Amino acid sequence: MLAFVFWLLSRVMAEEQPATPADFQKDVRPILERRCQPCHFEGGKMYASLPFDKPATVTHLGEKLFTRIKDREEQAVIRAFLTSR
Fold it and tell me: Which string of DSSP letters, residue by residue, matches 2-66?
């Protein structure tokens, strides 16, 4: 029982800690390149309206990106980036 209490306490404490800030070039852009290229990168058909190589586009869209990016770990990285803005 005591082990369960310690486990539960560690989970609660982990959830309260702020996410580590994510860097656009190092952390976010590679996700977008894997998921959204070629359309949203230079030369792509959607680049003019939604250029995903620019941090401002990601900041503007926010969690609307998650309609296409379903992986929870990738979403967590993008959320960490958004909260650091």
Answer: HHHHHHHHHHHHHHHSPPPP--IIIIIHHHHHHHHTTTTSTTSTTTTT--TTSHHHHHHHGGGGG
Residue 4: the pLDDT is 65
Check if the beta carbon of residue 32 is closer than 8 Å to that of residue 52. yes
For residues 59-81, average pLDDT: 95
pTM check: above 0.70: yes
Classify residue 65 as exposed, middle or buried by CB count within 10 Å of its CB (0-12, 13-18, 19+): buried
Quote the tokens at residue 72.
């929870």
Confidence of residue 74 (pLDDT cuts 50, 70, 90): very high
Query: What per-residue string of b and e applies to 13-39 under the rule 16 or more CB within 10 Å gives b?
Result: eeeeeeeeebebeebbbebbeeebeee
